[in-house]
Structure formats: structure tokens, C-alpha cells
Give the backbone structure.
Amino acid sequence: MNVPFDSLTQASDEALLVLYGNGDREAARVLTLRLSPRVLGFAIRMLKDRAEAEDVVQEAMLKLWNIAQEWRQGEAKVSTWLYRVVSNLCTDRLRRKRGVGLDEIAEPLDDAPGAEATLQTHARLSALDAALLQLPERQRQAVILRHIEGLKNSEIAEIMNVGVEAIESLTARGKRSLAAILQGKKEELGYTDDGL
Amino acid sequence: MTDSKNEFTDLDALFAEAREADVIGADALVERVLLDAETVQDSFSNLEIPPVKHQRRSLFMLLGGWPGFASFATATVAGVWIGFGGVETVQTLSESYFSAMQTEDAADFLSGYDAMLLEG
């Protein structure tokens, strides 16, 4: 029997996964709508390739569906598990890509409408993405998860399979490098000394 | 942590902007993911009728797994042994028991199995 959609939107990720494992179709929809966009944003920033990022997310979600019936409740957060799988899949693809020059990596698709203000925002975010791409892979991963995805250091440590102190170090070094990269583009991106 | 040491002090604002920017156009991906979800879920329902191998396994587990199976085998062997031992063994047992009750002698309940007590 399927639980009503409205009730499902209040349910935790874990409860939804268990419901899915018990045959609830709507639970899969709610979980997909909740988690896919989050991990897609992360995968796009890691890979700088929308199509490839979508493939990674689809593959990660497929793994999630496959382990649904064996999911051990209370052991890990579903979102943390999913970020970890996406992270590993991105790393695999980046390793395969290694040797391909940055210029050969596809630019992200421009989905935003063309208003001037939006263009300025888009320019800033593109600059951030480009700067992120210049960071070493582990630093980039930690900075995105901490400062853009908003995860806790303990969660990132679990995802990246390192200690919390290592994450603190990675994010601090990553932020310093980003600041140095973006410093030269401050005016170009519409920043003044007084801020935005 | 503050960015006081960073040259580019607007980094946190930029991160916030990036956080708020939704990923647009994920509908096609959502449909693909849901199609996978349904396919996998359909395979769950196929498992409701367990194959013969699983049924044997279930019977084995019902008997208590390996410990249960060992007890079951021991009881079977004992039954066969008693069967082949014949009436003499059982008679010896019952005679010893009842005579012991009357005479208060030390009873040898399983005199028919004395040979089993020999060592070496």
C-alpha cells in the first residue's frame, strides 16, 4: 500500500528508503526529488560536465535503489551515503579524464534567462566554478561539500573517508587558494571594497 | 571561521550565492532515476516466490541450521542403532530397571551396551 504523497514529504530520507524497499512507488518519487538535485549540483561542480554529472547521479541513485532492502537503519544518513557514492564516481571519472586539458572540458550549460542582473550573478558563479576547478581534487571536493552543499565537517569526513581535522585543513587551504585566484577578478565580477 | 586573512573577502557571499542557485532542468534526470527505481522495485516483488534453492534453505533453517541438523542426525543414528540392537537390549534395560527396584541392587540400565564402555 502506498502512503499519501503529502505524508511522505514530511518523512525522513531513511523512512522513505524503507518504504521504497517495501514497495512504495511514491516514496521513490519524493526521495528522488529531494536528493537528486542536491547531488547533481555537487557532481556538476566536480566534473564541470552536466551530462556526465547526470549519468553519475543516475548511477548513484540506482545503487541506492538496489541496497534499499538491505539498508541498515540508524547506521548512516542516506544523504551522506549518496554524497559518498557520487563523490567516488566523480573521482573515478576525473581519474579517467586526467590528461585532458581544462579547455577540452565542456562548459556548463547556460540555463538561466538572459537578464543583466542574472548575467552578473551567472558570471560570478562561473568564476567561482572556474576557480574551484583549479583546486586540487580533494580540496575542491571538501570546499564544495562544506561551503556550497552546507554539510558538517563530520559528514564530509565520512564521505571522503578521512578525519575531521583533515577536512578542516582541506577546506581552509581551499578557501585561501580560491581567494587568491578570485582576487584579480574582483572588479570584473561586480565586487567593490564595500562588498556586493 | 572568518575570512579575515583572505585577500578576497567576499568568498562567503559568493558561496551563499552558489548555494541558493538551484540546479535547473533536472526533470529528465528525475524521470530516468524514477524509471530505474521502478525497475529495481519490480525485481523486489519477484522475490516473493522463493526459488526451490531458497525453499530448501528455509527448511534447513527451520530445523535449526547446522546445530539442529547435527542433533537431528544423532537422533536418527541412535534410532537405527536401537532398532538393530534388537529386543534383547530393551529387555535388558527393562529387566534391570524393575529388578533394581525390587532388590535395591546397583542397576545396570544399559547392560546391552557394555561393549560401548570399553576403552581402547
User: Anything to note?
Assistant: Chain B has one domain: 11-117. Residues 11-117 of chain B form one domain. Chain B touches chain A through 35 residues (CB under 8 Å). The radius of gyration of chain B is 38 Å.
